Amino acid sequence: MNKADTAFVLAAAGLVLLMTPGLALFYGGMVRGKNVLGTIMQSLFMIALISIEWVYLGYSMSFGPDVGGFIGNLSWFALHGVTNAPSPDYATTIPQTVFMVYQCMFAIITPALITGALAERVRFVPFLVFSLLWAILVYNPVCHWLWGKGGWLGPDGIGVLDFAGGLVVHVTCGAAALAGVLAIGPRKGYGKTSFMPHNLPMTMLGTGLLWFGWFGFNGGSALAANEVAATAFVATHFAGMAAMATWVVMEWFTQGRATTLGAASGAIAGLATVTPAAGFVGPNAAVMIGVIAGIVCFTAVNAKNRFRLDDSLDVVGIHGVGGAIGTLCLGIFAAKAVNPDGVDGLLAGSSIQIVKQAVGVGVVGVYTFVVSWLLFKGIHAVLGLRLTDEAEVVGMDSTEHSETAYNN
After folding, report:
1. Residue ranges of the domains in the chain?
2. How many other CB atoms are found less than 10 A from the CB of residue 205?
3. Beta partners for 72?
4. Cα separation, 305 vs 151, whole angstroms
5. Is 67 helix (H, G, I), strand (E, B) or coil?
6. How far apart are CA 101 and CA 68, in angstroms?
7. Which H or E run contains 72?
8. Are 285 and 270 within 8 A, CB to CB?
9. Strands, E, within 109-174: which ranges?
10. What is the distance between the alpha carbons of residues 238 and 246, in angstroms, rounded to a whole number?
11. Strand, helix or coil at 386?
């Protein structure tokens, strides 16, 4: 066991946890004032809900002894047998408990990301039911497929790579968000009513916290204080800044102005897009990934109105599209010269990896969409997931939590 690696991953786990309150502020600032507390609560409470699920089911299903390449068995139920000794299969220089809690933070933020697509129109308790079932039926299996020992889609199977969650986190939340938007429908007054952000400074604060936390999200995924962590750290920052700059330029040329919301959206798009490739690409490739993210995600976000998709806070266009594009970019820009334990991508002379990455995007996207759509429809039918028209007019803060963010 290496003390430096242990301290590094513990710090990274704290950074990733910080991302969930950061996401709550990022989303909270973009909704109307009558929904800010309800929006924050949907993200923040995932810390409690998913942590409990992770202890009793999630960790064992995701990383426990393999069952047919598709799921981990429940031999680690309630963390039975998960000790401070290193695991022979995962992160062999740190206690398994540290690896477990680090991965818990990823499981927490993923369903929290989905909430942005359905902001201002879903009830708190039914959405918690959805999130719990979604973690069990979608996140845990997909996590095992790609990151679990013996998973059929990852290095032990087909060979799809995902350094820090492009598929496991971003494609799953993006596909679920699309399913939710289609299953639940748009907000009352969509296309007629203005849904202007009520507090963009709050969103900018959330952006800063997310960017800061992303260094733990991507850098910590090396699971050691080593050169791969340094590679991922640098790639994370360069992709984020390149996407921010590109998004602002796109705004300037298409709309004649640059906005703070656009700068924030661009940064998050770049950070999400580089996530699957962060430990496998060099600085210049990271800049290119950021530029691609800025162009493609900007285009995707601006296309939603043509399809009348009320993805309230652009989860599909930023996280879903970004995660998918970044996963494919890994197959283009990855190089063993950067990470000897990685692969060579298209630009390094190998075309097979981009094919594998495309298979990963297709499989994860379709599976997540179908299961999520069924969950949304089923929970809405049984519990009433959607706010009533009257509650939408009054706002979630009052109807769901009996609170108000601002006393006039």
Report:
1. 3-204+216-401
2. 17
3. 66
4. 38
5. strand
6. 25
7. strand 71-72
8. no
9. none
10. 12
11. strand
Q: Are 285 and 303 in contact (CB under 8 A)?
A: no
> Rounded to the nearest 10 degrees, what angle do helices 260-274 and 283-303 cross at?
120
Amino acid at 368: T
pLDDT digits (tens, 9 = 90+) for 326-355: 999 999 999 999 999 999 999 999 999 999
User: How large is the C-alpha radius of gyration of the chain?
Assistant: 20
CA torsion sign, 280 to 284 to 290 to 294? negative
**Is residue 408 very low, low, confident or very high in pLDDT (cuts 50, 70, 90)?**
low
Calpha distance 281→231 (Å, rounded): 7
Residues in the chain: 408
Residues 6+ apart with CB under 8 A from 29: 36, 197, 198, 199, 200, 201, 202, 203, 204, 205, 206
Nearest to 331 by CA among 216, 172, 163, 219: 163
The tokens for 271 are: 């950070």
Chain position carrying tokens 């998050």: 268
| CATH topology classification for 3-204+216-401 | Ammonium transporter fold (1.10.3430)
The answer to whether 356 touches 165, Cβ cutoff 8 Å, is no
- Whether the Cβ atoms of residue 86 and residue 94 lie closer than 8 Å to each other: yes
253-271 tens-digit pLDDT: 999 999 999 999 999 999 9
Token match 């995902």: residue?
162
Q: Determine the residue type at 171.
A: V
Q: Which residue has the tokens 């989860």?
A: 315
**Quick one: which of 260, 321, 331 has its CA closest to 294?**
321
Give the chain's mean pLDDT.
Answer: 97
Q: In this structure, what token pair is assigned to residue 258?
A: 């640059």
Residue 14's CB is within 10 A of a number of other CB atoms, namely: 15
Cβ neighbours for 138, distance < 8 A, ≥ 6 positions apart: 172, 176, 367, 368, 371, 372
Per-residue DSSP letter, 1: -
Contact partners, residue 174, CB within 8 Å, separation at least 6: 315, 316, 319, 320, 321, 322, 323, 324, 365
Range 92-95, long-range pairs (CB < 8 A, 24+ positions): 93/1, 93/2, 93/5, 93/6, 93/223, 93/224, 94/1, 94/2, 94/5, 94/6, 94/9, 94/223, 94/224, 95/1, 95/6
Which segments of 29-84 does DSSP mark as H helices, in order? Answer: 36-44, 46-53, 59-63
Q: How far apart are CA 114 and CA 202, in angstroms?
A: 19
Amino acid residing at 188: K
Residue 68 and residue 70: Cα distance in Å, rounded?
5
pLDDT tens digits, one per residue of 383-394: 999 999 999 999
Q: Are 63 and 102 in contact (CB under 8 A)?
A: no
